[in-house]
Design goal:
mainly alpha, elongated
Amino acid sequence: MTTTREKDVVELLVDQHNQIKTMFAEMETAKGDRKREVFEDLVRLLAVHETAEEEVVHPVARRKIANGKQVVDERLHEEDQAKRMLAELYDLGIDKPEFDIRFRAAKDSIIAHAEREERDEFSGLRQTVDADQLRRMADAVKAAERTAPTRPHPNAPESAVGNLLAGPPLAVFDRVRDSMREYAKTHKG
């Protein structure tokens, strides 16, 4: 009997980066309601992904990898910029003429961020953290994602402690709003 090994945190997050890139590509051709759905799903994935990284991955990287403080501070700055861009796009709405231009700028910035994260932070984790801890970190990321906000909150703190304090109340608010939006979509008419 063969068993499959659980993904470690690097594999999990790289898979999510690939899913994000696929969603960005789909946004290029989606129209109307489908475009809105893809955008909302993309925003949700990015919000929970970044929150989990801030709570679980960045603190370990800060301590374990070469130049960890600098690398993590740079990624946090990029994540803060991305949150602001996504929040502005979300508030703007997909139907506005300037949405597509601003969306492409956000897409380019977020993809570049993911590539730097994989090169500078994830590769450092792979070199300095043992395989068992990387698997445990994947479990911690999944747990953090279950309680993470589903929308970018640019004024929320950019730290593990800040996310642990502000994240759950924001997540409850976001998830109630998500449920109301889903209910409205399924009960039109």
